[in-house]
Design brief:
GO molecular function (chain A): beta-N-acetylhexosaminidase activity
CATH class of the largest domain in chain A: Alpha Beta
GO biological process, one term (chain A): glycosaminoglycan metabolic process
Low-confidence stretches of chain A: 1-15
Radius of gyration of chain B: 25 Å
Family (chain A): Belongs to the glycosyl hydrolase 20 family.
Radius of gyration of chain A: 25 Å
Structural class of chain A: alpha/beta
Oligomer: heterodimer
CATH superfamily of the largest domain in chain A: Glycosidases
Helix content of chain A: 25-40%
Strand content of chain A: 15-25%
CATH class of the largest domain in chain B: Alpha Beta
CATH architecture of the largest domain in chain A: Alpha-Beta Barrel
Distance between the termini of chain B: 37 Å
Number of strands of chain A: 16
Catalytic activity (chain A): Hydrolysis of terminal non-reducing N-acetyl-D-hexosamine residues in N-acetyl-beta-D-hexosaminides
EC number (chain A): 3.2.1.52
CATH topology of the largest domain in chain B: TIM Barrel
Chain lengths: 558, 559
């Protein structure tokens, strides 16, 4: 009769479950208090546990002891004291892999091909103080389970406790790609900010860091084979990512279940390359910039030039070699045609080759993608490469939808796999006014501000047929940084970027079977936001604390 | 023959690209294009006897900023191309401060809290290009303080060399308006004292002189009042989320020493549900539902002002707080009074019946009692605009009114003859545009959408729709942060550098040529003060990619 009981409890959706984000796919939670023993330990029943799993256990222990999160209720836990005193104490959590599972490091599992990773886990926390158990098919699954486990616990008067024992969770993500994109070219972010962002991503089970590392404004990526690019294209000699920085970032990411998808945007968004290679550039800083680019400065790679094709191909090859992940993005958005129409050299090259501009673009793209494929990578492009251009791409190319959520269906109609990154739901930078100068009245191009509620109500399968649904790999929220820098990174990203983390982990319906909705989600989002702050991330508040302490009291019709 | 003076005038007319370091722009400035080094032995000497302690502290602070700002110039090369000019430049060894003959020596703190309109903030600053002593003169230590602020913004650093690029400077400066404020709400979410200190520092850097502290509201009552300890004990978010009497004294002293007056607001009779935690008997429609019937936002709850006990309590509360504050201004709030709350309250209706007063008459009795208590303590009452536009309340003539609902309401307040502060939501609300925060409302939007950009605030005309005779009624203005969606985690980025926009509107008012301020001229200077703020530890947001900040005007719309 277990099923009936679990259904009943799920229907009531106990208050204790306010602690989890993303909410597990399937969960059975009680309402018994359980405290964490001061001798609590996490044991791993593996013969030779990978070092990143040991590190994850250590980090989990650290969070349990240092989160010091008081419950978001009136009294902040004062009314729990008696229940906690009477509660059983949990002394251990035992981690194990399913029989026959291969023991790999988290880092190895995290960068496997998309769709082949195993992130599911089972977590059982009994109410009677007997050992809790976490099992999975991979160390990556164990890592996800540890993340869930660490979110149960509150602290009051030095007592660490949870309020929803017993809990049984069977959890697995709805989509394999759950990302966050950061642009480090409009303004620079030191590696410490990236590491700190990766940590926050891991807390909500995001698994892809889409790193838009270069753009027209700056080229911070130091490459051993092409040192001149960052030397002349970075904002300063300090505002760079050295090869060691990149290794540290990809290593840190992988150890916490995150794949790094690097993007070198080409052939547009490349003015910064002209600082070292003006000969590769068309309409370099041409004015008026608005004729030649969507934002200043203008400048694009002259892809009709065989030397540029060779350079860009070698560049991708060199970058790809250094990365453990299987995904590399060549960008491909916002190509400006005026730039080529007005360039004598481009026109001469087209004439002599007998190719159209589109044919030449296809040749360029096949060359850069060929280099990636030769390094075992899957190319990723922005939607224009399949919707606006006539470019031959490998069938397994992944396409990122950004201009509008309406475009997903158009990409699906071309049968490419899709990552949902639509500006009308997921752009974190919208709504703060225009940043272009001399425009006192202008607003953000993608106004209004995309609230967490807007992101949360995104339907990844809207307008797609059943057979197209499998093309959707997942999605990501994105921060373009014309108006952002380390000063506001946390506050503009968190907790908003957690919204899509739940959309793509939990899927259309929560454990109770009813569709995700902002009213149910808000108390849990408060919880993870306050926990993030306890862990050092400056996430913004979503409401007055008065509301956060009184779930639903500040709802529209309350 | 071109005289030196006319050459300077010429320079001013074309506004040399290099004077991008000052915010707010002085009302009168001539500058050159000569580089000048700051001597490693540079010192500031106060020829003021006896020098007040806060003036000495301001000098020490200025010398610290000069040495530690480490601000590279926002140009390509960040100063690398300045080095040859710097090498042959003269060196400045000292700045001498003095008061005009006959000026009384008082502390900055004393000058900063004088009645509005009686403070002297003007100064004259001369920095010669030949290395001879720079001079700063004023009629008061407060004026000297403003001049030190200007002086500290002139300097850049590259490779350990501290230098300016636009010597000589001749500045004669004074503010256009006496009230230049910033408001922080510490009741929707709590801000520790250290956040308030840092905010006061940043305010002082752009010559803002009033900290409007909206300290309590319906959500929480963080103010510990010695005579009424129960208010914070039960009404604060926690025993840690409070401002003790010592905190208040520290903040007020810290502010005054930086030329900032603290305008404390205890919002009444609305916005007081948090008082119900200790005094439920004083509050009508306490946490009544649906909240939208009884309040503009949750929770509902307003002081039952028809009750003589509530009137006495409130007057006594305001009196006991006002006593502890040096400022001459104090706000009793008065916004968003919900009438349903009283219509449905039996006790209110019974009291109105027995006194024979209308609700408005009773509100007037209440307000006269609370304002009377403040006036008895030597304070000038400040109210939100509804108190004069929507209610029929007798106020003393010198009451100051804050316009907030719409910039269009300024003319209506002026028609009633009251002095006012420009705080219009359609220009100056820093919290707008972040989406709705009320729950269960996925499509909810910010009530005052869109986001108020710095450009929007900067193009505000404080005198729009006013007659010439009404102009003196405008005391100035302020940008405001209501904190339903803000907390210490985003305080700096949501406030700075945007709140610097009104600082210049109300200090400088017009361009040097007398024309309207314009965003295109302002942007490079705003970048400059923003980067300087970051150097001084304030997490101000960037306004553009650094690429643009290093190339003035290259990212303009038609560039």
């Amino acid at each position: 009769m277990f099923a009936l009981k679990s259904f009943l409890i799920l229907g009531a959706f106990p208050a204790g479950v306010l602690s989890l984000w993303p909410i597990p796919k399937s969960m059975d939670a009680g309402s018994t208090f359980l405290k964490l023993s001061s001798q609590f330990n996490i044991s791993i029943s593996l013969q030779s546990p990978p070092s990143d799993l040991l590190a994850a256990v250590e980090t989990t222990m650290y969070y349990l002891k240092n989160d010091k999160l008081e419950r978001l209720v009136v009294g902040r836990g004062a009314y729990d004291v008696q229940d906690v005193q009477d509660a059983k104490a949990l002394s251990s959590l035992k981690l194990s892999l399913e029989e026959g599972a291969q023991v790999n490091s988290i880092s190895t599992e995290a960068v496997k091909n998309i769709g082949t990773r195993s992130e599911e886990y089972q977590l059982h926390i009994p109410a009677d103080g007997t050992a809790a158990t976490l099992t999975a098919n991979s160390t990556l699954g164990l890592f996800r389970g540890l993340t869930t486990f660490s979110q149960f616990w509150y602290q009051y008067d030095d007592q660490i406790y949870m309020i929803s024992a017993p809990t049984i969770i069977q959890d697995t993500p709805a989509y394999p790609f759950r990302g966050f994109m950061l642009d480090t070219a409009r303004n620079y972010f030191p590696p410490t900010d990236i590491i700190h962002t990766l940590d926050a991503m891991s807390w909500v089970k995001l698994n892809v860091f889409h790193w838009h590392v270069t753009d027209s404004q700056s080229f911070p990526l130091e490459l051993a084979e092409f040192p001149e690019l960052a030397q002349k294209g970075a904002y300063s000699s300090a505002a760079v990512y050295t090869p060691a920085n990149v290794q540290n970032i990809t290593t840190h990411a992988a150890a916490i279940g995150i794949d790094v998808m690097l993007e070198i945007d080409t052939p547009g968004h490349t003015t910064s390359i002209s600082a070292s290679h003006p000969e590769y550039m068309v309409c370099n800083q041409a004015s008026p910039w608005s004729t030649y680019a969507n934002e200043p400065p203008a400048g694009q790679l002259r892809f009709t030039d065989p030397a540029v094709v060779n350079f860009t191909t070698a560049l991708f090859s060199a970058v790809a070699k250094t990365l453990p992940g299987s995904l590399v993005s060549t960008g491909g958005d916002e190509l400006n045609i005026n730039c080529y129409d007005d360039d004598a050299q481009t026109q001469a090259e087209l004439k002599s080759s007998g190719l159209t501009l589109e044919e030449s673009l296809s040749k360029f793209t096949q060359s850069t993608h060929g280099a990636l494929i030769a390094e075992g990578k899957t190319p990723v492009v922005w939607e224009e490469m399949v919707l606006d251009h006539n470019v031959t791409l490998a069938n397994d190319t992944i396409v990122m939808v950004w201009i509008s959520s309406n475009d997903a269906a158009s990409v699906a109609a071309k049968n490419y796999r899709i990552v949902q990154a639509p500006s009308d739901y997921f752009y974190l930078d919208c709504g703060a006014g225009e940043w272009i100068g001399d425009t006192p009245e202008a607003t953000s191009w993608c106004d209004p501000f995309k609230t967490w509620q807007k992101a949360y109500t995104f339907d990844p399968l809207a307008n797609l047929t059943d057979s197209q649904a499998s093309l959707v790999l997942g999605g990501e929220q994105l921060l373009w940084t014309e108006q952002s820098s380390p000063n506001n990174l946390d506050s503009i990203v968190w907790p908003r970027a957690a919204a899509s983390a739940e959309v793509f982990w939990t899927g259309a319906t929560g454990p109770s079977g009813s569709p995700l909705n902002v009213t149910e989600a808000l108390p849990r989002l408060h919880d993870i936001r306050f926990r993030m702050e306890q862990r050092g991330v400056k996430a913004i508040v979503l409401q007055p604390l008065w509301c956060a302490l009184r779930p639903n009291a500040c709802d529209l019709y309350a | 023959m071109v005289s030196f003076t006319s050459l300077l005038v010429l320079v001013v007319a074309v506004f040399p690209v290099r004077v991008q370091c000052l915010w707010p722009q002085p009302t009168s400035i001539t500058s050159g294009t000569t580089a000048l080094n700051l001597s490693p032995r540079f010192y500031i000497q106060p020829d003021v006897y006896p020098p007040p302690a806060d003036l000495l502290a301001a000098i020490t602070q200025t010398e610290l900023y000069l040495r530690t700002d480490s601000m590279q110039r926002l140009v390509l090369g960040r100063g690398a191309y300045d080095m040859s000019a710097v090498q042959s430049a003269k060196t400045l060894s000292s700045l001498v401060l003095s008061l005009e003959p006959g000026a009384t020596v008082e502390s900055i703190s004393t000058e900063a809290v004088k009645a509005l309109g009686t403070r002297s903030e003007g100064y004259t600053l001369t920095v010669p290009a030949d290395g001879s002593t720079a001079t700063l003169k004023a009629n008061s230590t407060l004026g000297l303080y403003r001049g030190l602020t200007t002086f500290s913004q002139m300097w850049y650093e590259y490779n350990g060399q501290i230098y300016t690029v636009s010597a000589p400077y001749d500045i004669v400066d004074s503010p256009a308006y006496p009230f230049r404020g910033f408001m922080l709400d510490t009741a929707r979410n709590y801000f520790p004292v250290s956040d308030i200190y840092r905010t006061l520092d940043a305010m002082s850097w752009v010559k803002i002189n009033t900290f409007h502290w909206h300290i309590t509201d319906s959500q929480s009552f963080p103010l510990i009042v010695s005579q009424y300890p129960e208010l914070a004990q039960y009404g604060a978010y926690s025993s840690a989320d409070v401002y003790t009497p010592t905190d208040i004294q520290n903040i007020v002293s810290y502010a005054a020493a930086r030329g900032i007056d603290v305008l404390l607001e205890i919002d009444t009779p609305g916005h007081t549900a948090s008082i119900a935690d200790s005094h439920p008997e004083y509050v009508a429609c306490n946490q009544a539902t649906p909240w939208s019937t009884f309040a503009n936002e949750p929770p509902a709850g307003q002081l039952r002002f028809t009750d003589p006990a509530v009137r006495n309590f409130t007057a006594s509360l305001l009196s006991s707080i006002a006593k502890t504050l040096p400022s001459t201004v104090f706000s009793t709030g008065g916004d968003e009074l919900n009438i349903n709350c009283y219509t449905y309250d039996n006790q209110t209706q019974a009291e109105l019946n027995s006194t024979g007063l209308t609700l408005e008459e009773s509100l007037s009795v209440f307000t006269q009692a609370t304002h009377g208590a403040l006036i008895a303590e030597g304070k000038t009452p400040v109210v939100w605009e509804e108190m004069v536009l929507d209610h029929n309340v007798t106020l003393s003539n010198d009451t100051i009114v804050m316009v907030w609902i719409s910039s269009a309401d300024a003319a209506l307040v002026a028609d009633k003859g009251f002095r006012f502060v420009q705080a219009p939501s359609d220009y100056f609300y820093l919290d707008c545009g972040g989406g709705g925060w009320v729950g269960d409302y996925p499509a909810g939007n910010s009530w005052c959408d869109p986001f108020k950009t710095w450009q929007r605030a900067y193009t505000y005309d404080p005198l729009a729709n006013l007659t010439t005779t009404q102009i003196p009624l405008v005391l100035g203005g302020e940008q405001l942060l209501w904190t339903e969606q803000s907390s210490p985690t985003n305080l700096d980025p949501i406030v700075w550098p945007r709140a610097a926009a009104s600082a210049e509107v109300f200090w400088t008012a017009t361009t040097l040529g007398g024309g309207a301020l314009n965003v295109t001229e302002a942007l490079p200077r705003l970048h400059d003060i923003r980067y300087r703020m970051v150097q001084r530890g304030v997490n101000a947001i960037v306004l553009q990619p650094l690429w643009c900040a290093l190339r003035p005007d290259a990212c303009d719309l038609n560039a």
